[in-house]
Design goal:
Chains A, B: Its cofactor is Mn(2+). Chains A, B: It comes from Pteropus vampyrus. Chains A, B: It is found in: Golgi apparatus membrane. Chains A, B: In the N-terminal section; belongs to the glycosyltransferase 8 family. In the C-terminal section; belongs to the glycosyltransferase 49 family. Two copies of one chain form a homodimer. By secondary structure, chain A is of the alpha/beta class. Chain A folds into two domains: about 85-275 and about 300-375, Spore Coat Polysaccharide Biosynthesis Protein SpsA, Chain A (Alpha-Beta Complex); about 425-660, Alpha-Beta Complex (Spore Coat Polysaccharide Biosynthesis Protein SpsA, Chain A), CATH 3.90.550. Chain A is about 35% helix and about 15% strand. Chain A has 24 helices and 22 strands. In chain A, the strands form five sheets. In chain A, strands 6-5-4-7-10-9-11 form a seven-stranded mixed β-sheet, with helices on both faces. In chain A, helix 2 crosses helix 14 and helix 9 crosses helix 12 (about 300-310). Chain A is elongated.
């Protein structure tokens, strides 16, 4: 290597010579290659300094070093250089996609990362909580409000409201901090199969004029010969795919990017006769890679605009090797790329069918994607050696607390579990917040995988909002997702919020789970229940009526006790009324809750009085009491130090009772 | 790149010039480096053709390109070149380790692999079944019998029988096929964090004289200043670690390797005065990296012998960059390596404490290792694009059958599940086969994660051998392992064989699981039970006595029916005698099995007659009969096409009954 102080001229001269000698064997898009004699001990290498492909002369094959006798060497940015990545993310499902993408990125990365996330309120809420609890070293996250950027793109015709988010890629040079000179922009449906630093390193190959690095489209969509009557937007050849973009923000700003793209969009796209635009809709939505189906009103995507600009100014683009955006759509030509390449870098699920797309090698790509869907994200909390990056203050505190624990402590396992900060993914599935109603109640509970089959029954018994914390591994979270999708009962409910708390440690963090579910309840009252408890069919209505009747809302500190019963039978038909319930009790098919093992836990409920009662009555707290209660949402949280079995609820009821005496 | 036909001289000349200009800045062990200007668009590269470190001149730092201003480029062998890897593997626990190692290797590999496994009978049985059912494309596995190699190394003093296996690395040049010229030899306690092809590519850097590539030891053990009275074996400096070895087998054979190592071992090690050897024992067993504890008889490891040879013939070794064998022992100096390196390639758990070793960054390394422990091995069944490698015939048949399925078929899910070939890891945990006894019975059952808590009770109720199939994900298999380790009852039993069948698909492959468990039973009889069924305490003895009494062994085709009962109560005290059982039946606490839902399934057992019976009696098969039976081990298998719920056992009993009529 060249020592630090050495004049650069010497190394540069050597490389120049290599270039002269062998440069003429190379074609555009090739970065750096090596040829090796089969079996022989030596190696022959062909090398190339950054080279500008001639304006407009887009090579037919963007494979880079994808000939079989030629493998790419790996240039890398300096160790510890901070890499910037921008993504636009809106809604629940896209948030899940982003997390999988980030997992794949973190798995291979060796550099500190700064993620710039343009989000709607839903995605921000989810991702802020996630990254805060994930505590990955050397990852910084900044959020940008998509709502604020909307006016800049909302004038562009778009079929779906969601199409607006796609257009926000265009305004990143203005939206990201002015000091930020370079950024990698990613669609949320890509998966990394290599170190993102290798992609970042391609910035070095930009000529002075180039501002955008893109991979060519791997379908003939923009060539216009895919379907009858199909006339695509203007583009250079197959056009470029915008799933993976290298942006020189500094140069874009200098070049007056905002004006440039707005002018091009107006002149090239919006002025076309309306009839010729009707066909564009689906093709554009499919990012140039999918099937054109149906007709609709006009819609223009960011990809269309990028391509129209590039057609006007071909010198702006640096074509990237195809392996950095292997596009998996139905009509993909990607096989030309990956079957020759030694290595795949990024795969792009750019069909609307996503993982259900059909192509010859989809199993292979699906496996790559599933790898990160199921990957235990806790394992990515690993530091970067030799890159000094102060951990977040919480992580540092935690490390110190953990270091203080004694290995001899018989409660070591408990103390470790108490200190564990679990990764939390709130509203894992699409969720509609309930409309504001003054006496509404959310059922709050927590569960793990083995209680999944309770969910359908619970939904049948409780027609109101629910906030449920699920203690799962990453792989189990995917199983849970499929479980909900396969259930008509569960899919029909938008008012059930599922919050995934990722498993870590050997003890069940019951109160941490309860607190997550409680914190996410959006109604003024919560019913602090258990997953094994099936509410009577009328309970939701009855509770709301009782809250109103008892005027709980008017500053009165009180908890409503819901009497609980249990059966020791596997098969049991649920009572429809208090009369039926009493009959079952008398027949010995039902018992008052835990009356065999833990009578003191429920004694103060006074079941004898309850039998006769026609209206709510007041009960007196006593030691060990742990009833199921309805309380205002802002009531005290559970003590998270209780992990595993025992006392977790008793302690909470003690505190609730103490609070009522304070009032 | 250079085109195929081009004279090589031109490229070589260019590289030579680069070498002359900048070669003098390089130091031994550096392979190829690159320097990049921070933030600038260009790059400066220093390059080096394969270079022989001078004899005996071992560089102080084997870090290769591990300075912060210098990152390694990645040379690779030709695409699709077959890479050879050898490992020595004996016993149950090491087999698990090998699989994790192989998973990490397969995750990053892009080349076809040929694994050469020297195994004992136990490991061969496990790994043959595993690779056969894994069906990974472009992976070939050859087995070599460790028993046959033993005589070649058994004369070397060794403390443990297991130490002999470690010594077998020395005889690989003779044991592997004569046509095999190069091989990578791995300890089973390493984990890959990169593509093994990069390691293979280092063969290109061997000089004509070099035959072994090794990484230096990352502890001061061989320097002899770690403990008082500690005098290590002869070695060059810190010596070399033999966890990762590149072997030029062809040259070793030519050079008379067998004589060389035997002579060195005899002259350098075995002739040392016995007193000075006593201290070696632990250090040697710990691979030069662990703590010396205790004293014992003399033991010499392969590593000791390799180091003694290298001390005599330093020209034989090519020192490899430290990142190819990051050694994680208590006194490791590895931080010097990995904190500077841009990239870690292979980690080596060379402390006897393995993952429980303490060092500053062990969490980081543990996470890397856990990644592959928990990794879904099914996802590694991915083909290598552009490398034509015919899949195993079974895999091809399977592909064809799957392709024939119609998407419209309402039974699609069932048919897919029926065709699924599950990866099978037999005897996942250490297991002692039962001594041969003519009337012995193995309890056979299958379960998934949610029934784990049945195992302890089952062990208490059944003191005999068991063969259990567990349907688990890779991550669950690790949880299961911890579950057994944490249970005194389960850990104490060596006669329970656990066979992991890896999950794939949505339906429970009940009969495939039963067949796996049945095939692995080693006694002449099997009790075909269910995991939810608790045998009466005396059943094991009673069955063996009955088998003897009824002379089942003498060619008589008969099945013994074990009457079953059920309780609908969560809490239940198990009857100790038939009298107690009858009392519970009369009290309504027990029922005859499934008498509520499926009386015909057990009706032919004739429970009324059973009440009165004092001795076994004959029952008559009737439709839908599905009793629990004891049969000879070689009885018909279950029909694997039954997946999910229903008819799976009924069909088997039909076949058993039909077979008795044939006799």
């Amino acid at each position: 290597m060249l020592p630090r102080g050495r004049p650069r001229a010497l190394g540069a001269a050597a490389l120049l010579l290599v270039l002269i000698l062998i440069g003429f064997f190379l074609f555009g898009g090739d970065l750096e290659c090596e040829r090796r004699e089969q079996g022989g001990p030596g190696s022959f290498r062909c090398s190339l300094t950054p080279r500008v492909p001639p304006d407009g002369d887009l090579p037919a094959d963007h494979g880079g070093c994808n000939r079989s006798d030629c493998v790419p060497l790996r240039p890398l940015p300096p160790k510890c250089e901070l890499l910037h990545v921008a993504m636009v993310c809106a809604g629940h499902n896209t948030s899940r996609d982003v997390i999988t993408l980030v997992k794949s990125m973190l798995f291979f990365r060796k550099n500190p990362l700064h993620l710039h996330l343009v989000t709607d309120a839903v995605a921000r809420n989810i991702l802020e909580t996630l990254f805060h609890t994930w505590m990955v070293p050397a990852v910084r996250v900044s959020f940008y409000d998509a709502e604020e950027l909307k006016p800049q793109v909302s004038w562009i015709p778009n079929k779906h409201y969601s199409g607006l988010y796609g257009l926000m890629k265009l305004v990143l040079p203005g939206a990201l901090p002015p000091a930020l000179a370079r950024v990698i922009v990613l669609d949320t449906d890509v998966t990394f199969a290599s170190d993102i630093a290798e992609l970042w390193a391609l910035f070095a190959y930009f000529s002075d004029e180039q501002v955008i690095g893109l991979v060519e489209n791997q379908s003939d969509w923009y060539l216009g010969n895919l379907w009858r009557n199909h006339r695509p937007w203007p583009a250079l050849g197959r056009g470029f795919n915008t799933g993976v973009i290298l942006l020189r923000l500094d140069r874009l700003r200098q070049a007056g990017w905002e004006q440039m793209w707005k002018l091009t969009a107006t002149q090239e796209l919006l002025t076309l006769p309306a009839t010729s635009l009707a066909d564009q809709v689906w093709g554009s939505l499919l990012g140039g890679g999918g099937q054109a189906q149906g007709q609709g009103e006009m819609a223009v995507s960011a990809q269309d605009i990028f391509n129209a600009i590039i057609k006007r100014h071909p010198g702006l683009v640096l074509p990237l090797p195809c392996i950095w955006n292997v596009q998996l759509s139905d009509h993909t030509l990607a096989e030309r790329c990956y079957s020759e390449a030694a290595d795949l870098k990024v795969i792009h699920w750019n069909s609307p069918k996503k993982l259900r797309v059909k192509n010859k090698h989809v199993e292979f790509f699906r496996n790559l994607h599933l790898t990160f869907l199921e990957y235990n994200g806790n394992l990515l909390r690993r530091e970067l050696f030799g890159c000094p990056s102060p951990p977040p203050p919480e992580a540092e505190q935690l490390q110190r607390a953990l270091a203080h624990l004694s290995e001899e402590d018989t409660c070591l396992e408990f103390r470790q579990q108490q200190l564990t900060v679990h990764r939390v993914h709130i509203t894992f599935l699409p969720h509609e917040p309930p409309p504001p109603r003054p006496h509404d109640v959310t059922l709050v509970a927590q569960l793990s995988m083995d209680r999944l089959q309770m969910l359908e029954a619970l939904c049948r018994h409780w027609p109101g909002p629910m906030s449920l914390a699920l203690y799962l591994t990453d792989a189990e979270a995917q199983q849970f997702l499929h479980f909900v999708e396969a259930s008509a009962v569960l899919s029909a409910r938008q008012d059930v919020a599922y919050h995934v708390v990722y498993r870590e440690g050997s003890l069940y963090p019951i109160n941490q789970l309860r607190n997550v579910a409680m914190a996410q309840a959006l109604t003024p009252y919560v019913f602090l229940s258990d997953i094994d408890l099936l509410p009577s069919y009328s309970l939701y209505d009855y509770l709301r009526a009782s809250i109103e009747q008892l005027e709980l809302g008017s500053g009165r500190k009180a908890a409503l006790v819901v009497p609980a019963f249990e059966t020791l039978h596997y098969h049991f038909s649920f009572p429809n009324s208090k009369a039926e319930l009493l009959a079952l009790l008398d027949a010995g098919s039902l018992y008052t809750f835990r009356s065999h093992e833990w009578p003191q836990g429920y004694a103060p409920t006074d079941y004898a009085r309850w039998r006769e009662a026609q209206a709510p009555y007041r009960v007196q707290w006593a030691a060990d009491y742990e009833p199921y209660v309805v309380v205002p949402r802002d009531c005290p949280r559970y003590d998270p130090r209780f992990v595993g079995f025992g006392w977790n609820k008793v302690a909470h009821i003690v505190e609730l009772d103490a609070q009522t005496h304070l009032s």
